[in-house]
Amino acid sequence: MAEKVLMKGNEAIAEAAIRAGCRHYFGYPITPQTELAAYMAKRMPKIGGVFLQAESEIAAINMVYGVSAAGKRVMTSSSSPGVSLKQEGISYIAGADLPALIVNVERGGPGLGGIQPSQSDYFQATKGGGHGDYHLIVLTPASVQEMADLTALAFDLSDKYRLPSMLLADGTIGQMMEPVVLPEESCGTVEKPWAVTGTQMKRKHNIVNSLYLVPEELEKTNFERFERYKEIEANEARCEEFMTSDADVVVVAFGIAARVSKNAVVAAREQGIKAGLIRPITVWPFPKKAIEEAAKHVKGFVCAELSMGQMIEDVRLACGCSKPVLGAIRVGGMIPTPEEVLAKIKEAEGGNA
Amino acid sequence: MTTQILIAGFGGQGVLFAGKFLAYKGLLENKQLSWLPSYGPEMRGGTANCSVILSDEPVGSPIVSKPDVLIAMNLPSLDKYENDVVPGGMIFAESSLISRKVARDDVKVFYVPATELANSIGAPTLANMVMTGKLIRECAAISDENIEAALKKVVSARHADLLEVNLKAINTGLGYED
Predict the structure, then answer these.
(1) Do B35 and A172 touch (CB under 8 A)?
(2) Given this model, what pLDDT does residue A353 score?
């Protein structure tokens, strides 16, 4: 087995991206994702890559658009307010059917908010974010190991399905250090015949574009894109289940909230309460099947989140509103404690939901 | 077994560094572990703290809210976290800077004049590592092995000249009977 090293979550993303063949990084500084950009600034020039601190987030995402059109693996990273600024470019990238990785190490909002961890960009990440009908594949790491592994996966899925992917992390997972086994070097295997690389007068030129002034044509691109989305929803929803098979109450939580919730579930079991955890690893596509299955035997669900309960809607939809869904909620940079989650588990178990 | 450690003090006292040392030591010993710093504006001159968890099992939440071990490098940190320590836990108080006694009687308390001890070996900035040495001496969950190897991981190559003095500071804490 490869050697374990100790790294911050933000650094693990950067190193994993480099190992996944990403040689183009564009960003603009913001806490709490700074270590990612700093790592890229240090490493990229040494390996013939590009690190460019753009004049703004908007410039950075449009540089990503350009490099992706040329068929290269490319990424940007930011934190919540910065990711809001990128939304126009993300919509263009989605509209042009291009792969790219966008990392959001979330902080509290809305507005400038604070710099402490948050998950309150859930709607923005999972429902589109910018204008128009589109989705991103959204991956939610809960450990430094997953920061690395899901970065590699995000590039692969993005290339395969030709849509931008997002790593939706939070300040805690970004700042913490844990042992990590870094992924092997790989640059992906997906051919990109659509890339704008120069024809050498040997083929018809490619066009990368998101402008379709003929409504019939624009409609067709949307329909085709959503056929791909269906395929993604069928094949790429991921989650980890922990003690769910006999559970009376299932906590649904991702990222740092899932780490806290696992403690709560263990504590509940010690007290004789049959609790379990579904930890979405993708939040789009949402792991509906796991929720559907659990809904057959649970009394209720608890969503533990660092938002005002944005994921509750998806859990309700996934279970067809058949079971109550409580929220164990902290916002503004606060994180629910295991005790707070446990209290909600008890409430759901007692049927008080 | 799981040991949850909270190290707290002023920014600049090497609180995060001491935590990193313990984390690297855990890594060398094949432990499961997490290291989580406070990264708020308070770290620029105000209070800083870091959570370190060392375990034989996968670490759940990396946030230490009920420490088994508290290292309080100043009075505000002792005031803030004293009551969070689990009964039967340990508190290491920096007694060069904290004049009051710990009020709890259900925890083991060690008063270590770490800054004075660090001054006495000519390393005034290494009170953190003196304290870490004392922690290794008193806390059964943290062995006295791999100290030098862990230091080599955490002291950057650029500052390799500081290895020796860090080791000296740890040894000073290791030898300190309060």
Answers:
(1) no
(2) 46
Q: pLDDT tens, B152-169?
A: 999 988 888 899 999 999
The Cα of A30 is separated from the nearest Cα of chain B by a number of Å equal to 13
Cα-Cα-Cα-Cα dihedral sign, residues B132, B1, B4, A307: positive
On chain B, the residues whose CB falls within 8 A of the CB of A175 are 36-37, 39
The answer to whether A177 contacts chain B (CB < 8 Å) is: yes
Q: Which CATH number fits domain B2-174: 3.10.20.90, 3.40.920.10, 3.40.50.2300, 2.60.120.260?
A: 3.40.920.10
ipTM: 0.94
Cβ contact B33–A179 (<8 Å): yes
Q: Which of B20, B34, B60 sits opposite A263 (nearest CB)?
A: B60
Q: What gap in Å lies between CA A262 and CA A276, rounded to an integer?
A: 8
**Distance (Å) from the C-alpha of residue A163 to the closest C-alpha of chain B?**
33
Residues of chain A with pLDDT under 70: 1, 351-353
pLDDT tens track for A90-146: 999 999 999 999 999 999 999 999 999 999 999 999 999 999 999 999 999 999 999
- Biggest CA–CA distance in chain A, Å, is 73
**How far is the C-alpha of B131 from the C-alpha of B125, rounded, in Å?**
12
Q: From the CA of B36, how many Å to the nearest CA of chain A?
A: 4
> Which whole number is the average pLDDT over B81-93?
98
DSSP B101-155: PP--SSSEEEEE-HHHHHHHTT-TT-HHHHHHHHHHHH-TTS-SSSHHHHHHHHS
Interface test with A, best of B27, B31, B32, B39 (most A CBs within 10 A): B39
Q: What is the CATH number of the domain that holds A292?
A: 3.40.50.920
pLDDT at residue B38 in the model: 86
